[in-house]
Amino acid sequence: MSTRPHPSITRSAGLGALFAVALGTLLLPTASFAQSTCVLLPHASADVPAATWQEVDRAVAEALRTRGVIVLSARDAQLRMMGQPMEDCGAIECAPDVNRFLGTAFAVLTEVTWLRGRPTAVNVVLIGLASDHAAGGQASVARGSELEDATMTAFGIAWDRWEADRQGQLLVESTPPGAFVELDGTSVGRAPIRRLVTTGVHTVHLALEGYVSETREITIDRHEERTLSVTLAPTEITAAQAGPGDGGSEGEAPSTGVLTTVDQPHWANWVLGGGLLVASVGLAIEPIYAASIAGQRTPTGEFYAFGAQEGILTGLSAACLIGGIVVLAVQPFRETVTIAPGLGSLRIHGTF
């Protein structure tokens, strides 16, 4: 006895797979890295074989490149610094001078402990523009283990400490309290709010219903704790300020109104959630039909059966149903709408 799926199941499976790929492309975040440049310092120890140093440098350079860092090799750096006092620098003390001369963000110093003819430990140190701005990591090389694995472990520890060392604290306060806070374009909650941020310039936007929104830039240095206190002014407009297009006209007495800022769900929630529910229904049609005719004979004497393809469609249908319900219930997409009442008209400006 043989079985075969319903003839249109293959077409539905293809449409379901295409929809799943499109949905994944929409929802998956795009990874991006801010590029910077570093330099690998030459090695001070002559006891370690050259092949070992090459393996360590190759592993460190690959780990840096995956983090979006441009790597300048020790040989290239020495050629650029030819004749300079720090030309052969292979220590933490002179690394800041190398960074300043080459314009690199940081230098990388690697050390290998070599005992009884084999490596026993790897140490990786990242050094910035000051000798006290350094972070290191160390890993042991067990007998029979890979040197590259120990190098990656040591580098990972150093990198995590380096990133943590570059952070500062930012406290955002608003008067009156409770303003919505956006940090570099990302909503982080209501003021007062405290956040760990990387060093550099950050943009802070505050918005509160009935008050004028404010945008400020603030620079955070390493290990610094900064407080940004913003006093929001009540938003009042007159008919003269609103203009004829907003209901004002010459000779009329000014009429004041208050701008209202409302945080509400965006229409994209209904589009995405509804689309997922519709897709769920469409994907479920074929499995339901196949289940209803399972066991019946085909014109050729075979039997219809509920097989693997129907199971795939059922799973996709359930996933779309759950996704649609979650989107409609949670409504993750939000928009801020500002309503400015004039004389007989409303001005609505929405941002998403």
Task: Describe what you observe in this structure.
Helix 1 (9-27) runs antiparallel to helix 7 (268-293), helix 2 crosses helix 5 (147-165) and helix 7 packs antiparallel against helix 8 (308-330). The two termini are 59 Å apart. The radius of gyration is 31 Å and the shape is flat. A five-stranded mixed sheet has the order 3-2-4-5-6, with helices on both faces. The chain folds into four domains: 3-28 and 267-330, no CATH class; 36-165, Rossmann fold; 167-234, Carboxypeptidase-like, regulatory domain (Immunoglobulin-like, Sandwich); 237-266 and 334-351, no CATH class. By secondary structure, it is an alpha+beta fold. The chain is built from eight helices and 19 strands. It has helices spanning 9-27, 50-66, 74-80, 95-102, 147-165, 239-242, 268-293, 308-330, and strands at residues 3-4, 36-40, 69-72, 106-115, 118-127, 134-140, 167-175, 180-183, 186-190, 193-198, 200-207, 214-220, 225-231, 236-237, 257-258, 260-265, 303-304, 334-341, 346-351. Helix 2 links the parallel strand 2 (36-40) and strand 3 (69-72).
Observed structural traits:
Immunoglobulin-like, 352 residues, disordered C terminus, single chain, Rossmann fold, 35% helix, 4-stranded antiparallel β-sheet, 4 domains, 5-stranded mixed β-sheet, 19 strands
